[in-house]
Write a structure and sequence with these properties.
The protein is of the alpha/beta class and 174 residues long. The chain has six helices and nine strands, in the order H-E-E-H-H-E-H-E-E-E-E-H-E-H-E. The longest helix is centred in the N-terminal third of the chain and has 14 residues. The chain binds 1-O-pyrophosphono-5-O-phosphono-alpha-D-ribofuranose (PRP) and adenine (ADE).
């Protein structure tokens, strides 16, 4: 089962990037091409029936499966990046993380108003990042089609935070 394969591959790194945080390191997944294929197939299967025009992936780990998934679905991928990285005109949003604060930005021509945008990231923790991404997308006229994550840290209750934004939530491992 995909959830078991993912959980087996992820390794816990205590006290990274700060004391008290147990960091979920997904890099071992990337060394297993068959598992990466299975992850994309599981997303495709679980997103069947959902209108998605564009996938927005969150820097940096949201780029890993976000682009592959968009390519598999035959739709555009847009990067949502940390401050100062995108070269064209941008919209920005500040937010809080489990272990700090950050700003995300999106190109103003990333998608058309009225398009349905799936927000993709590797991991759902507090939900602060994807809530900020949702606000950014909505302020730009996009409709949040839903969220997809490889893994969720359930104890941080991110899913409760994002539930009012969209009913569509795909999490492959908890
Ligand atoms: C991590 C992770 C998510 C976010 C989840 O990214 O990849 O984007 O934190 O946390 P939240 O649900 O509490 O907002 P991070 O900001 O560490 O950046 P990285 O992907 O570049 O490592
Ligand atoms: N993003 C937020 N919290 C995280 C954690 N504990 N491990 C990996 N990524 C994270």
């Amino acid at each position: 089962m995909i959830a078991e394969q993912i959980k087996k591959a992820i390794r816990d790194i205590p006290d990274f990037p700060k004391p008290g945080i147990v960091f979920k390191d997904i890099t071992p997944i990337l060394k297993e091409p068959a598992l990466c294929d299975n992850i994309i197939a599981a997303f495709v299967e679980q997103l069947k029936g959902t209108r998605i025009d564009v996938i927005a992936g969150i820097e940096s780990r949201g780029f890993l499966f976000g682009l592959t998934l968009a390519t598999k679905l035959g739709i555009p991928f847009v990067p949502i990046r940390k401050a100062g990285k995108l070269p064209y005109t941008i919209k920005r949003k500040a937010y809080k993380l489990e272990y700090g604060e950050a700003v995300i930005e999106c190109h103003t021509d990333a998608f058309e108003p009225g398009q349905h945008i799936l927000i993709h990231d590797d991991l759902l923790a507090t939900g602060g990042t994807v809530t900020a991404a949702s606000e950014l997308i909505q302020e730009m006229g996009g409709i949040v089609a839903g969220f997809s994550f490889v893994v969720e840290l359930g104890f941080l209750k991110g899913r409760e935070r994002i539930a009012p934004i969209s009913d569509t939530l795909v999490v492959l491992a908890e």
